[in-house]
Amino acid sequence: SGWRIVMLTRLPPVSPFSIVNYAYGLTAVSLKDYMLGTAIGIIPGTAAYIYLGTILGDVARREHRDRTALEWGLYICGFIATVIVCVYIMRLAKAALARHAIKE
Predict the structure, then answer these.
(1) What predicted TM-score, i.e. pTM, was given to this entire model?
(2) Dihedral of alpha carbons 41, 45, 51, 57, sign
(3) Mean pLDDT, 10 residues at a time, over the chain (104 residues)?
């Protein structure tokens, strides 16, 4: 279950990757598990950053095309949903890590 632990530590976008990388170097996690867990675990945070960057880029450029109220509503609802999903995933990851730490 090495890849799961790696994935769970990658899900929260605030975890310090360089410190966690060194910690995994001290453990028995295989390179395959490390790469798989990292690849899966960074997807939600990366998607959230891309989404936020797209929205902020449109606002900063003040594009000439006016957005409808529906489009802005979708942007706002999408951003709120992204934040909620990220917080939910972080809580799941924290609980899973706590359960795993208790077992060992």
Answers:
(1) 0.57
(2) negative
(3) 81 79 87 90 82 79 74 84 79 78 64
